[in-house]
Write a structure and sequence with these properties.
Layout (H helix, E strand, L loop, with lengths): L21 H8 L3 H9 L17 H12 L11 H7 L29
Helix pairs in contact: 1-2
Length: 117
Amino acid sequence: MSTLDGPGFQQDGPSLGSLKTGEEVAKMVRLSAARILQLSRAEVLPHFRIDGGEPLFSLPILKAYVRRHLTVACEGAPLPTRQILRKLFNGDRAPFTPVIDEAGRRYEFKGTAAIAT
């Protein structure tokens, strides 16, 4: 318990001793300290300030916020099986010649490539 968390103070939030800086919580919520400070300055992240000082965070509150508002679940998709690939390309050779753009990110499909069985 912090010395400021005494019997004369109302407990309607986390104890002052449990509040952490952006640096301290960054790794625990998988955000950079700079991003945490940016979002707290924009008053997006839930935080506390003591006398206008640096933003301080309650780890349980911040984790719940990140989980609810900043985390997106990707369910993924099943990989195509060889049987599906054979049906798509009628058991023939599939058109495939990768062409990479200047950034190295895009493929176009030309030519042929065999589907392994």
